[in-house]
């Protein structure tokens, strides 16, 4: 047993030093983990600030506003700015070069208003143009306010109290706490951390298996008196160590990254401290080990590094698509999510961002699945190396 541990430690140190000497691995570690957190948070700040600026702009694009002085008066009293829409507004909305919906006023709007007839205001948007579609609801609320005001004036002229026709009133009550709203906004963070771990371990796993075979150094290594399991565990330990290091750096990078937040609302909602970073690391450790083992199992049969890269895209694709299951499931998080690698980690990390406490039962299923996955993949790698040594 001591001989196995000693040989494993020797292989582990050799593979880890080789991985650290590889500039590509180091560059991947730095770019994908250390820089990722601040970059993602800065982009989020820019996105949220842009959305707030658009919401506060209160600009209304109108065609033929000259035909509706009453509507103009109401809109300007609400502190909105009226602008004439360009003549080619439909083409520009389709081309997404125009980011606001256009309100089209009929030529006889004021006459119909005077006769007490319902006038039709057309709100033109393109549902494929997300910016314009997002602004439609704000314009609808503005026009609804104008309609209510006109209805109240007509009732008042006829001596009828407007409250008589108001059967009920709807008031919004949001049950989400600040942590839940922040988790909805920051739901992409677990996915970025997850993919950083996968891409960080990818190069080391391929280099220690297919890379060694391509360089011709795998066969001499198999002639070494060390046991196959010592070679497999040493290589796996080095690859997993790289993945775990990236997991730690990625989770920790969001701590200083908070200082770069330039949006007050986002800074108030973003609650990411030492507990969240520690929980992320705990959730990612078993996955990093499992991903390292699976990538080695995929690459061990490949004759070249390039072939291994092509085959490993299946693993990367599976890990990147698994979290999308939660998006397509409209019934919320299902209990079986935690039994699916990658999906379980993202689900639990989102719970952490929502402020929920994770118990041992919640952690058991992803740890168990990753342990089984690692054992099966490593057994396959050991069997493949044994076969290669006999040839």
TrEMBL record:
Coiled coil: none annotated. The chain crosses the membrane at residues 26-48, 236-257, 277-298, 310-328, 360-382. Keywords: Membrane, Transmembrane, Transmembrane helix. GO terms for molecular function: ABC-type transporter activity. GO terms for cellular component: plasma membrane. The keyword Transmembrane applies. This is Sodium ABC transporter permease protein NatB. It comes from Rubrivivax gelatinosus (strain NBRC 100245 / IL144).
């Amino acid at each position: 047993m001591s001989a196995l541990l000693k040989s494993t430690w020797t292989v582990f140190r050799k593979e880890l030093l080789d991985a650290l000497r590889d500039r590509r691995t180091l560059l991947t570690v730095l770019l994908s983990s250390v820089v990722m957190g601040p970059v993602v948070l800065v982009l989020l700040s820019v996105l949220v600030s842009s959305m707030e600026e658009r919401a506060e702009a209160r600009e209304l694009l109108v065609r033929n506003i000259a035909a509706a002085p009453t509507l103009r008066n109401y809109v300007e009293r609400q502190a909105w700015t009226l602008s004439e829409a360009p003549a080619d507004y439909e083409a520009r909305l389709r081309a997404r070069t125009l980011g606001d919906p256009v309100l089209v006023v009929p030529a006889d709007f004021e006459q119909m208003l005077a006769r007490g007839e319902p006038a039709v205001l057309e709100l033109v948007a393109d549902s494929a143009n997300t910016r314009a579609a997002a602004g439609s609801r704000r314009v609808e609320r503005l026009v609804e306010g104008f309609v209510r005001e006109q209805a109240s004036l007509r009732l008042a002229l006829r001596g009828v109290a407007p409250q008589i026709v108001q059967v009920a009133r709807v008031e919004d009550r949001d049950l989400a706490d600040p942590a839940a709203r922040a988790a909805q906004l920051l739901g992409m963070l677990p996915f970025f951390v997850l993919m950083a771990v996968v891409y960080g371990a990818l190069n080391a796993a391929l280099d220690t298996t297919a890379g060694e075979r391509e360089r011709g150094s795998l066969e001499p290594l198999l002639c070494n008196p060390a046991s196959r399991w010592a070679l497999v565990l040493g290589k796996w330990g080095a690859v997993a160590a790289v993945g775990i290091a990236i997991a730690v750096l990625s989770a920790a990078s969001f701590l200083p990254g908070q200082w770069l937040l330039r949006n007050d609302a986002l800074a108030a909602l973003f609650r990411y401290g030492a507990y969240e970073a520690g929980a992320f690391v705990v959730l990612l450790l078993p996955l990093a080990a499992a991903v390292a083992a699976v990538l080695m199992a995929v690459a061990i049969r490949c004759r070249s590094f390039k072939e291994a890269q092509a085959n490993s895209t299946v693993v990367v694709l599976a890990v990147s698509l698994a979290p999308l299951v939660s998006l397509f499931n409209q019934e919320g998080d299902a209990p079986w999510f935690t039994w699916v690698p990658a999906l379980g980690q993202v689900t639990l990390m989102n719970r952490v961002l929502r402020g929920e406490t994770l118990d041992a039962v919640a952690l058991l299923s992803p740890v168990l699945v990753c342990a089984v996955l690692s054992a099966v993949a490593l057994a396959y790698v050991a069997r493949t190396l044994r076969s290669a040594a006999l040839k």
